[in-house]
Specification:
Elements: H1 27-51, E1 54-61, H2 67-75, E2 83-86, H3 93-96, E3 113-118, H4 127-130, H5 136-155, E4 158-166, H6 169-181, H7 191-197, H8 200-214, E5 221-225, H9 229-243
Helix pairs in contact: 1-9, 2-9
């Protein structure tokens, strides 16, 4: 059984016992544990390229849940030609007139690709619904339709993984305050973030209904606790690796060849514009 205080009922998800460590993970430990996971992601990448597999990973969660950090940790050591991140802007007027999921479909992976959605078609079930960018009828229609769409995606051979990053009220408050105070993070803060912050319970209700109607056998929701960002990133990467049936390929035995001789080469006399070296 999970734990949840009475005053949080309906707001935060009940968490598994033992899922909340007492102390945040140190950066040195995080980097030590992340290194072998990065090696496995490279192995997954090479398998995807050679097998023509198609992998689609969806990340959803409240504002400041840490989606960008998880995605950065996944893509840090792999090729952007294989691991492609999709973060669509607000729809254009033309896109608004289309079938809702239409603008997302062209971004689905082809053979040999891993596509990661930093927010996805589930915008309709979350931010659009809570902030009034769509009607309740449009949301209900989407929630009824999308399991069938995802069944078609999976039946086409795509490995579809959907992650919800769960964050506590306290962590969301700390992270938004940090964005307000830190000039390096200020660009992450938007007016919509502040509106979303005030609608905590509306988001909770929207999340719960989304899970109820779209958590299917062919495309289940996987929930990751991300109050400690470092632990959350490690847990998500480890789980992602366990869900893709990749097989590490044999690495060729390579040696560096000898470099050619100078054979009269001389550096040009043209003065170069060297940058300053204050560090």
């Amino acid at each position: 059984m999970g734990k949840k205080s009475k005053d949080r009922a309906g707001a935060e998800l009940s968490r598994p016992d033992g899922a909340e460590p007492s102390a945040p993970m140190k950066n040195k430990e995080y980097r030590r544990l992340l290194k072998p996971l990065h090696a496995e992601l490279v192995a997954l990448q090479e398998w995807v390229k050679s097998s023509g597999a198609k992998v689609c990973v969806v990340f959803e969660g409240r504002d400041t849940a840490g989606k960008g950090g998880v995605i950065k940790a996944i893509t840090e050591r792999v090729s952007p030609r294989v691991f492609r991140v999709v973060a669509l802007p607000a729809p254009t007027e033309r896109e608004k007139s289309q079938m809702y999921v239409q603008r997302y479909l062209p971004h689905l992976p082809a053979g040999g690709e891993v596509v990661i959605f930093d927010r996805s078609w589930y915008n309709r079930a979350g931010v659009e619904r809570v902030l009034g960018f769509c009607t309740e009828e449009e949301t209900e229609h989407f929630l009824q339709l999308i399991p069938t769409v995802e069944r078609s995606i999976v039946d086409s051979g795509v490995i579809l993984l959907k992650y919800w990053l769960e964050v506590s009220e306290e962590q969301q408050t700390m992270r938004l305050q940090s964005r307000m105070d830190d000039p390096r993070k200020y660009w992450k803060l938007s007016e919509l973030d502040l509106k979303s912050y005030s609608r905590w319970y509306d988001y909770s209700r929207a999340r719960d209904e989304m899970f109820h109607l779209t958590d299917t056998g062919w495309a289940p929701w996987y929930v990751a606790i991300n109050d400690d960002k470092k632990r959350g990133r490690l847990n998500v990467i480890s789980h992602l690796l366990s869900q893709v049936p990749y097989e590490p390929l044999d690495r060729p035995d390579l040696t560096l060849p000898k470099r050619q001789k100078a054979e009269g080469y001389q550096e040009p006399g043209q003065p170069l514009h060297w940058i300053p070296t204050p560090y």
